[in-house]
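Morning F.,

Quick status update on the modeling queue. The single chain you submitted on Monday has been processed. Sequence for confirmation:
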Amino acid sequence: MTVTRAARLTGAALCAALALITVGWILRDLAVLTGSPGDLGWYWAGDHRLPPRERSATSGLDPVLIGVYAATAVAALRSPLAAPAFAAAGSVTLAVRLPGLWATGAGNAALVTTLLDLGLAAGLLVIAAVGRRSADTPYTPLPARPHPGPAVAAGVLLLLAALVRAAWEVYLALELPVEISIDRFTGGRSVLAPLLAPPPGWLSAVLVLLALTAAGGAFARSPFSRPLGLIVGVLLCGSGVMGLALAVRYEILDRISRLAGVEQLSQLTAVFYLLAGAAVLAVLVGRGEHRVTPAPPSLPVPPPAPPSPRPPGW
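Structure tokens below.
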């Protein structure tokens, strides 16, 4: 199950291309929005008091994706056991970029970027599936599985995070008009998201599905659960940071005792996302257990062939 050197280099190049495309769009937003990285960060968090000259393209998800691509590329260059990392990065990219195919008012440049990202992500999945080296040696290392204790802890945290996110989506679906609830998943006109960002409801559904998948893999101690769990942990940290940053920006924390119960619960949820994501990273980032394919059973050594011609008395 190890990945060939050519496949690893190709996968690292695909990750680098994905990262560079995202960096290019961030630089574009710096030019047309604020010109300041700090102001762009606040804009990602939800502070839109500085009206942009054009519609923004990136969101707080994009720097997280850059980190995922960089970590995957480094892992591919350092270890032949990169198939699960390629599969996780490719799956996440496909999931978050897919709505760009039908999002309202995305524009030609954003559509081309979406198609390119989807193609590169599909390439990572292909490499993870067919770029593996055949086990032609007596001992072949297999991808590391998480240790039992960290695996259970990560699984519980991921499961809780998925349930919390799903509960908030159910609450919003009950509170918002039906048209807006649908647009939050499809990217309709009532929800104006950045050009490359998935609709908020779609992103929540993706995060819930990824967290449940990673939790199930963690409970089963699957090798795939480590890279996917790490990605979900980073996404959770990003959600928590964005929520708390907006609260700090508008000084919400200073008057949290005077807020309504739902608003207080929203701030507590951001804290939970941050702590749960950090805990998942802490328990999964360490080395896992490597399994090794068993050696083939030894065969009896046949006796030496008789000499020819045979000596007398043989």
